[in-house]
Specification:
It is built from 10 helices and 12 strands. With 251 residues, it is α/β, with parallel strands linked by helices. The longest helix is centred in the middle third of the chain and has 11 residues.
Length: 251
């Protein structure tokens, strides 16, 4: 049995970690390389780095930040933000990323996923899906850091993304992001029913019980930011509690 992963997320803007609620009200949360090094020491299984302003500013992710984080850690590094072309992905991989995350550009041009998987292998391709509950009782995909709601159903898009070559889905509840009121377990279960590729739950963690609930709902990994950046808990502590709950994680 593959062990579940615990993943800290570094949302980065202008070379600094930022954090907010529902992608807004961003505040400074530290230096990316320093935090990444700390999280590796605490037992993080990998790091996700997202350049949160790259898409809106029409630029690629900041490669200097990626290089600095890569130099600080040895664990896997996934990087997203501003990836529009295969060259953008190549630049991130050459800067030290092990995986490349794609969100808005994949929604606009789904064939980009086919291209990335063919060039770099699907193990490198992570599709980030930001999902928000809609009036029909489902979840709509939102893009551009939550500024734009699309007509895409998150479950359908996850299935299509996996078929096109996504090796992993990073599933974020836009409604719960930063609110620390727990992951959207219904969303996790609904997407889990549609895809077989690894699924990372994101958005809303406040403590070890939320991580446990996400993993039991079908996530292969659970990602969080605020509770780690604010030193409310550590990755070591989360893992110890999950092991006590008889969940398979790396000690």
């Amino acid at each position: 049995m593959l062990r579940s992963r615990i993943i800290p997320c570094l949302d980065v803007r202008n070379g600094r970690i930022v954090k907010g609620v529902r992608f807004a009200g961003l505040r400074d949360a530290g230096d990316p390389a320093e935090r990444a090094r700390l999280y590796e020491q605490q037992g993080a299984d990998e790091i996700v780095l997202l350049d949160v302003s790259a898409t809106d500013e029409g630029r690629a992710a900041a490669l200097d930040t990626v290089r600095a984080v890569r130099e600080a850690i040895a664990i896997p590094l996934a990087v997203g933000g501003g990836v529009r072309t295969a060259q953008d992905a190549r630049d991130l991989l050459e800067a030290g990323a092990d995986k490349v995350g794609v969100n808005t550009a994949a929604v606009r041009t789904p064939a980009l996923l086919d291209d990335l998987a063919a060039r770099f292998g699907r193990q490198c391709v992570v599709v980030a899906i930001d999902a928000s509950r809609d009036d029909a009782g489902g979840w709509s995909v939102v893009v551009r850091a939550g500024k734009e709601r699309t007509s895409l159903d998150a479950r359908d898009w996850a299935a299509e993304a996996a078929e096109r070559g996504a090796g992993e889905i990073l599933l974020t509840s836009f409604d719960n992001d930063g609110a620390q009121n727990g992951y959207d377990l219904d969303l996790i279960r609904a997407v889990r029913m549609r895809v077989r590729v690894p699924l990372i739950a994101s958005g809303g963690a406040s403590g070890h019980r939320d991580f446990a609930a996400a993993l039991r709902a079908g996530a292969d990994a659970a990602l969080a930011a605020s509770i780690f950046h604010d030193d409310r808990t550590t990755i070591d502590d989360i893992k110890r509690e999950l092991l006590r709950a008889e969940l398979e994680v790396r000690p």
